[in-house]
Amino acid sequence: MTNHISNSLAHADISSVLHPYTDARAHERQGPVVIDHGKGIYVYDDKGNEYIEGLAGLWSVAIGFNEPRLVKTAAEQMAKLPYYHTFSHKSHEPSIRLAEKLVEMTPPSLNHVFFTSSGSEANDTMVKMVWYMNNALGRPNKKKFLARNKAYHGITVASGSLTGLPNNHRDFDLPAIPVRHLTCPHFYRFAEEGETEVEFAARLVAEAEAAILEEGPETIAAFIGEPLMAAGGVMAPPEGYWQGIEALCRKYDILLVADEVICGFGRLGTTFGCEYFGFTPDIMITSKQLTSSYMPLAAIVFSDDVYNAIADNTAKIGTFGHGFTASGHPVATAVGLENLKIIEERELVANAAKVGRFFQARLRELADHPLVGEVRGIGLIAAVEMVADKQTKRPFAQPGKIGATAFSATQEHGLIVRAIGDSIALCPPLIIDEVQVDELVNRLKKALDDVAEWRSSENFN
To answer: Which residues lie below 8 Å from residue 249, measured CB to CB, with a gap of 6+?
Structure first.
């Protein structure tokens, strides 16, 4: 069979591309929506249809889809030094300046940076760093991780193991590292009858302590969590949860890892999620809004204690035997630095707080909709969960079916969202204003009305 180039982008896509997070056989039947260009909070397909990008791409495009300063920065850096590595005592100004900026922005105890190209690579690297550190400190058994059900920490072998979503494990032989997943801290779904938020938080902290004691504190290396869980369904923890978890980590000498890949750089109306919830990690993972995803980049920011244990061991061995071709890529780090400047200059963190309050209020007007069980979120991130019975919170008999229907309906009304089971996730660019929030919510309401009509006609429960 002779290979050929199709005149149809859709046909070529179906023939050639295996898509992430996609049913490949369904994709063969329906084909792609080919996105051609973007402007601000909007993207446009190759047929000219306009969409509000209600998920900021993949929770990640803070400053919109056509920022000329990032284009200029990338072009200038490409012309000056398009690539160089950071192995073997080599460096370059963009990675140095961005590392310096991240140390300045993050909590005072975090003073060192390691660059990768994605959050998954960053969490994979973090696991290796923690193991390396504990071996260096003469603690070879301190290798286990605590994570949570419905957590998302990436898709590589180690980071995918930390993730607590079944479809990220099924038929991938994951988890492949020692990890114990604890109860998801989502009050609406997992609180016991009559339990308050404070009681729910206390129960989850007690569960974590029981797990630590059962496994043995000498075997637990780290607790990892998203400050607000995003890809699992946009779930904020109950009051007091993070303070309780941090206290446990200090009590039992367990590293606390904040996965800020989605929360970081303003999403909750604070620079970082740990700031919003009032805890201080030993290690912070950042990506996505670090460059507004204009370039692939992630950064691990970590404490002196972690650094010194690793550095001493590199002196013993003669090297830190880990790194990527693109670790600290000069174009990516230059774009990251300019992106953070824009976020600061345009006060987009404050915008996420101010417009975020309006966004949350407008979305909560949907709570009376016959499909909606819960509207939840903080700042410019939210989810609308659809249920079969509002009073009992009963989910639909076919989980994910109503979510997929809503996903298609929102797209028909010019809104791109993420369906997570039967929840619709929203995470618009940080530049969104109140007029655009109204437009987004109105499009979502029309889609929900269409889904309610479909449900009634199909007698779907």
So the answer is: 223, 255, 256, 282
Give the tens place of pLDDT for each residue, 72-90: 999 999 999 999 999 999 9
Task: Give the model's pLDDT for residue 459.
Answer: 85
Q: What is the pLDDT of residues 416-461, one digit of tens each?
A: 999 999 999 999 999 999 999 999 999 999 999 999 999 999 889 8
> How would you write the chain as a 3-class SS string?
CCCCCCCCHHHHHHHHCCCCCCCHHHHHHHCCCCEEEEECCEEEECCCCEEEECCHHHHCCCCCCCCHHHHHHHHHHHHHCCCCCCCCCCCCHHHHHHHHHHHHHCCCCEEEEEEECCHHHHHHHHHHHHHHHHHHCCCCCCCEEEEECCCCCCCCHHHHHHCCCHHHCCCCCCCCCCEEEECCCCHHHHCCCCCCHHHHHHHHHHHHHHHHHHHCHHHEEEEEECCCECCCCCECCCCCHHHHHHHHHHHCCCEEEEECCCCCCCCCCCCCHHHHHCCCCCEEEECHHHCCCCCCCEEEEEEHHHHHHHHHHHHHHCCCCCCCCCCCCHHHHHHHHHHHHHHHHCCHHHHHHHHHHHHHHHHHHHHHCCCEEEEEEECCEEEEEECCECCCCECCCCCCHHHHHHHHHHHHCCEECEEECCEEEECCCCCCCHHHHHHHHHHHHHHHHHHHHHHHHHCCC
**Model pTM score:** 0.96
